[in-house]
Amino acid sequence: PPPWRCGGSHDSRAMEGEINEGSVPPYYREVYEAICSKKDERVQIDVFQRLLNKTDLPGSVQSQISEQVDLKEGSLSKLSLYKALALIALAQQGKNPSPALLENCIREFPKPQLGDLKELPGLRMQPASGSPLVLSQSLAQLLERDTVKVELIPEKKGLFLKHVEYEVTSQRLKTSVYRRYSDFDVFHELLLQRFAYRMVPALPPKRMLKGVLTSNSDRDFIKGRCRALRRFINLVARHPSFSEDELVKIFLTFSGSDVQNKLREAFKKTGDEFLTCRISTQAKEYLPADIQVQFSTSRELIYKILSSFHKLRDHADRMATRSADNATDLLLFGRELSTLGSDALPVPSLTSTNNTWAALRPSLKGLSGEFAQLADKAAQQGRREADNVVEKLNLFLDLLQSYKDLCERHERGVLHEHQRALQKYSVMKRQMMSATVQSREPVTVEQLESRIVQQENAILTMELRNYFSLFCLHQETQLIYTYLPITAHILAVFVSSHIQGHREMSEVWNDLQPKLSCLFGGSNGVLPPPRRPPA
C-alpha cells in the first residue's frame, strides 16, 4: 500500500477523531503494552514524560505534545497515548505536532522513533524524581526528626521480683513516659508484625535479675541495656516509615497503666503495612528493571560495611577501655607517691644521703595532686570515647544489623512462602486433572476448583507482597546509604576528642615538670632532671 502522508485533500477522512485499535500501526499497540500499568491499563504521566525525553525532541516541543493529549488524574488512556505517538512522529519529521495536521493523515498514522522496543518496559519500572520509591531525606533531616532520651529511674519492687523502669522522653512530641523492658519487648514484637518489610532494630537480650543494681555485674548489664534501648528507640523514632505511625506515638506518649494492651489494640485496628500502604499493590510499577541485581550488589556491599564497622567499634572500645585503665593507673600512681611521702619513720644516720631522702619525701607527697588531675583528664577522655565514638558506632551497627536481619526475613519468609504456595497450587492442579480424568463426583470436582481459586488468590497476594517487600528493601537500602556519612561525623568526634584529651593532659604534665626541681635541689649525687623537649 502507498505510504501515509499528511496534507491531503479536504475530502480525506478525519483520522484524529477515529483513533482506535484498527486505525493505528501495530507498533503503537506494542508501545502501549510495554509501558502501560498492568493494574489500571493506563500510562502513568511520569512514564509518559520519560518516553518523551527518549525522543530527544526540544523541551518546548515536548510541552506542546503534552498539552495536546488528555492527562486525567495523572495518567493517559490507550487512545491518548496513540495520539501522542502520532504527534511525536510528526515532530520528529520536522512538522508541527498539532491535531489539525493529524486530521489530514491518509492511510496510516506515522511511526515514531523510540529506539529498541525491548527497552521500553524499563521506562515503566524506572523510579523518577518524586516517585514514592525514592527517599529524599538527608542525614541531617533524619537526625532532626526526634531525639529520645532513655534514663534509668530508681528501682521499684514488684510482687515477686524487683524490676527496672526507664523514663522515655521525646523531644519532638514533648512527652515523658515511664516504660519497663517488657513494654519495649511488646512494642518491638508489634513493630515487627506491622513493618515486616522494614528495618526494625533488635532489642538488647532479656535477662532475669536476682536483684536490681545490687552487684557490679547487674549494674553494668542494666546500664548497657539502657544504652541499647536508647539506640533502639532513636532509630525507630527517626525512621521515615515509623515516626508517624500510631504504634510509635502510643509508645512515646501514652501515660496510662497498660500501654501493652493499648499497643495491641492499635495494631489490631491497622494490620501490617501491606494492608495500609496505598501503593502496596502497585509496588512493582515503581521498581527498577534490575531490582534483583541492585539488591544483590547493595547487600554484598552493606554486609562488608557491617563487618568493618564491627572491627572499628571493637578497636574504639578497647581504646576507651585503655583510657579508663590509664586513669586508674595514674590515680594509683599518685596515691602511692603520697603514701611514700607521708612515711613518718625517721631516716637512720647511715650515709650522707639521709638528708636528701628526708627532704625528698614531702615533695613526693605534693605531686599526688597533679597525678589526680591527670587521672581525671584520662577518665574524661575515656568517657568521651565511650559516649561519643563507641556509642555512635554501636548506633550505626544496630542499623546495619537490622538491614541484614531484614534481608534474611525477605529471603526466608516472603520468597519461601511464595515457593510453598506455588508447590501447593501445582499439587492441586494435578489432583484436579486426575479427578476430571477419572470422572469423579461433581461435588468433589467443584471442591477442588474452589480450593484452586483460593490458592490462586493466595499466590497473587504473595506475589504482590513479594514486590512490596522488594519495594521496601529498596527504600531501606537507600536509608543505609543516607546514614553512611555518619562515618565522617564519628571520625571528626574521634579526632577532636583525642586532640582535646592530649592538650588537657599536656597542660598538666607541663605544670608538673617545674615542680620536679625541688626534688633535685641538692647535689648529693642526685642526677639533674631531664631537659624539656623542644617545642
Computed Rg: 37 Å
Number of helices: 18
**Which outline best applies?**
elongated
Classify the secondary structure makeup into a structural class.
Answer: mainly alpha
Give descriptors for this structure.
18 helices; mainly alpha; two-stranded antiparallel sheet; single chain; 5% strand; disordered N terminus; 535 residues; elongated; 5 strands
Description:
Helix content is 62%, strand content 5%. The protein is mostly helical and 535 residues long. The strands form two sheets. A three-stranded antiparallel sheet has the order 3-4-5. The protein has a two-stranded antiparallel ribbon with strand order 1-2. Strand 3 and strand 4 (162-170) form a beta hairpin. It is elongated.
Summarize the structure.
With 535 residues, the chain is mostly helical. It is built from 18 helices and five strands.
Topology:
Elements: H1 26-35, E1 43-44, H2 45-54, H3 59-68, E2 75-76, H4 78-92, H5 99-102, H6 121-125, H7 139-144, E3 148-157, E4 162-170, E5 175-180, H8 181-194, H9 216-238, H10 246-253, H11 259-270, H12 273-276, H13 283-286, H14 291-341, H15 354-366, H16 368-437, H17 442-483, H18 486-515
Antiparallel strand pairs: 1-2, 3-4, 4-5
Helix pairs in contact: 3-4, 8-11, 9-16, 10-11, 14-15, 14-16, 14-17, 16-17, 16-18
